[in-house]
Write a structure and sequence with these properties.
The protein has one domain. The strands form three sheets. The chain has a three-stranded antiparallel beta sheet, with no helix packed on it. A three-stranded antiparallel beta sheet has the order 5-6-7, with no helix packed on it. The chain is globular, with a radius of gyration of 12 Å. It is 0% helix and 61% strand. The chain is built from no helices and eight strands.
């Protein structure tokens, strides 16, 4: 669809989120793990607040909140 964008689906504590992101924000390591560049706005003992690079379709928001002991997973 767009040669400079990826369609991304993330899973957090509240379910799945999908969004389009610029290709340069996606990185893969030598072991095959995939990473999305995000901004961690606040992190404390109990929760982490993250600003995504674009709005998720399901929430119309760039904000994601999760527990500090969990992580967001690519699907």
């Amino acid at each position: 669809m767009f040669s400079d964008k990826y369609s991304v689906v993330l899973k957090n504590l509240k379910g799945k989120l999908s969004l389009y992101v610029d290709r340069f924000l996606i990185k893969k390591d030598d072991k095959g793990a995939t990473f999305l560049k995000v901004y961690i706005v606040k992190k404390d003992k109990n929760k982490t607040v993250v600003l995504l690079p674009s709005e998720a379709f399901e929430t119309s928001s760039r904000w994601v909140e999760s527990s500090s002991t969990s992580h967001v997973t690519f699907i």
